[in-house]
Design a protein that fits this description.
The chain is of the alpha+beta class. The chain folds into two domains: about 80 residues; about 240 residues, Bira Bifunctional Protein, Domain 2 (BirA Bifunctional Protein, domain 2). It has eleven helices and ten strands. The strands form two sheets. Strands 1, 4, 5, 6, 7, 8, 9 and 10 form an eight-stranded mixed sheet that branches. The chain has a two-stranded antiparallel sheet with strand order 2-3. Helix 2 packs antiparallel against helix 4 and helix 3 runs antiparallel to helix 4. The mean pLDDT is about 90. Bound molecules: ligand 2U9. Ligand 2U9 binds next to helix 7, strand 5, strand 9 and strand 10.
Amino acid sequence: MESLDAERDDWLRQITAAADLDALERIRIAALGRSGAVTQLLKGLGALAPEERKARGAAVNKLKEQVEAALAEAKGRLEAASLEERLTRERVDVSLPVKAESEGRIHPISQTVDELIAIFGEMGFVVAEGPHIEDDFYNFTALNIPPEHPARQEQDTFYLMGAEGTRPEARKVLRTHTSPVQIRTMKAQKPPIRIIVPGRTFRSDHDATHSPMFHQVEGLVIEKNIHMGHLKGCLIEFCRTFFDIDDLPVRFRPSYFPFTEPSAEVDIGCSRAGGGLKIGAGADWLEILGSGMVHPKVLMNCGLDPAEYQGFAFGMGIERIAMLKYGIPDLRTFYDSDLRWLRHYGFSALDLPSLVTGAR
Ligand code: 2U9
């Protein structure tokens, strides 16, 4: 019987010498393809006498296995070499100077949200999100908003059409604040809770200072032994960091919201001398956000015992604080998609907000 050693040595030599994966694939086809040399040897077995076929069959199959093993080894080696070559060739030079003013700009709303996340993130808050289309329960009932409250009226809230005869409280609403996200969070996870909720909100309201769609950020802290002192410390720190004025005067004024008790509006010091507006120490006050201790009924609506857990919450309009910080005079321009406006008021993508850079 003719030996297959020379044949095997030839294939193994070729495989070892293959310069790349394409060359290796050509060798595989020449050996093991449908009309490859080794395949032909296997096919030829059928023509042999049975006693000859056994010994020859074992030898041809061994040859086939050796060629397959050599191909697999070479494939692994060439793939690793190819990856190594690409990693060297495609390396990013991080020391190259950036293209400082590339095309895009960050919208002031996005920038302000990023700044809020940086400031509250430093205080241990995490971001929570929820749906824009809400159930009456999460948007109103759970928040202790009574049936006769103006926010529940048709002229103040966008309701989605329900089927004929849908009960009013079964209709879906476009959320009028981000507060339903806090309700969902309290129902889904145990305290301690420390979240901020930036997002779109919708009210049937349209004039120079109101848009039917606007953005809010709300915050919620629920823990044991939380009191008004925590609320005040947190919000004073926020105002001073956001406006980057260390001694910014901050004042808390009693107020009313159905979902907090007691409630307080927060004003910052400003000066209106000469017709302009300058934030900082001055003779005047500017309302900036609303806040309060979470109402016991709201806690109970979420399955929490007010004797065990307390918390505070706050809310503010993002357009409003962005206008004050960046001197944007008209609310409606936020949604015009005017590129000249965006080039003027927008931010560089490289200007990443942090407590050091973004808050100013
Ligand atoms: C839960 C409990 C309490 C959120 C709060 C305010 C006060 C507030 C307004 C500011 C201007 C909305 O954008 S605005 O019109 N918000 O004054 N928001 S306390 O209180 C909550 C929220 C959720 C469960």
